[in-house]
Amino acid sequence: MEENSKRIVIVGGGLVGALCAYYFGKRGYRIDLYEYREDIRRSKSPRGRSINLSLSNRGRLALRDVGLEEEVLKSAVPMVGRRVHFQNGKVQSILYDEFTNQCIYSVGRNFLNKFLLTAIESLPNVLLHFDCKLIDVNLKTDELTFYRCSSQDYLRVTGDLIIGADGAFSCLRRSLQSTPLFDCSQTYIDHGYIELRISPEQSHLMKPNHLHIWPRGSMMLIALPNIDKSWTVTLFMPLSEFDRLVYKEMVLEFFKQVFPDVIPLIGTDQLVNDVIRTKPSVLVSIKCSKLHYRDKFLIVGDAAHAIVPFYGQGMNAGFEDCTVLNNLLDKYSEDFGRVLEEFTRLRKWFDKQMHRVVEDKWQPLYYSVTFTHTKYEVCLQQRDWQSKVLKRSLLLFGIVALSFSALTFINIT
Ligand code: FAD
After folding, report:
1. From the CA of 13, how far away is ligand 1's center (Å)?
2. Which tens digits make up the pLDDT trace of 20-29?
3. For residue 259, which of 222, 311, 231 has the smallest C-alpha distance?
4. Tens digits of per-residue pLDDT, 118-135?
5. CA of 155 to the centre of ligand 1 (A)
6. Does 161 contact ligand 1 (Cβ within 6 A)?
7. Where is the FAD-binding domain positioned along the sequence (predicted)?
8. The complex's ipTM?
């Protein structure tokens, strides 16, 4: 690894910030990563969102490029298909890919975050600073101010490049919004989610190596397997529906009507208590017109493009940011100005396509988004092409069938 005297400051040590630090660290830069939380490897009750995540090809490629994929997959559970639980009690498996047996992986968020932090700590040129909350960005002096809760003091730092990987409610992004032509929209959807758990003892009731789904119109329940044989269940539904589940009887009645087969999986008492006790989390999507400012500031991951979780693409797309950045650093010989310009151009386009992709429901599109690292834009072009081919084939088939019937009719008569 060649040493590089340039200093990179990364804000946020979540999944994307940690992987980004590893990429830049491997290139020899001096890295300082500042994270608001305490070190989750030492924390007894780590905070954060979903317990497990689906890792698909885009994310895997980003891990593979820096030699981390193999180790991550050892602690992940492969999911070969979706197991759909219909309202009428029928259950059906839909393989993700019956031709080449590709699958996605369920991986623990905390495991992955801890693993990445340990990986970056092994690089001599990377320093981790926990309990440092970014509270101010001075865009004139390029100075960041962090607040340290434990010592109740402030820290002022700067760098040659400052990367915000501080999540959907990014402080760095908020500052960049004051710069010219930096538009940004933040949209809450009216759905929230809570997490429940199926214990390893009940695991025999679940078909292994599948992502289980209970689709119910505006509500959806999914279950992803964990390495300890438990399952993490996520219930998505409009927040107004959660508001109605106040008493135990109401919860039980609701599940009896909508998800009756889930009751024995979680257990009545556990289910009712967990639903009543858990406050639903909200879901937000972020779109920005720019992702950088000058050759100095950049935002990545959820800070730049948070999306709703239904397609399981947020982390995968954030990891892909790291691959794209790395390729651009090669392409432009580490000229930050050109790298950042092009990154914004590429990812803005991605953002537009991704939101179109997320709104689409067609299965083969899911395939190309999940199992390939084809650009999202190309996935959509392929889908349009497939639709055209399908229409033409149907037309041709219709003409052939009509001609055949006509000939048969002529022969008979
Ligand atoms: P975050 O994970 O939010 O990390 C940001 C980090 O920055 C945190 O550590 C935070 O403490 C720190 N931070 C915040 N503010 C500051 C500050 N001021 N100063 C310093 N540090 C700060 N994606 C998938 O690909 N597959 C899935 O299956 C999937 N499932 C999901 C299920 C749910 C219910 C949800 C909500 C999301 C899901 N996602 C999934 C999306 C995925 O969780 C995110 O895209 C991913 O976590 C983004 O990573 P990030 O590092 O950009 O942001």
Report:
1. 10
2. 999 999 999 9
3. 222
4. 999 999 999 999 999 999
5. 24
6. no
7. 8-329
8. 0.99
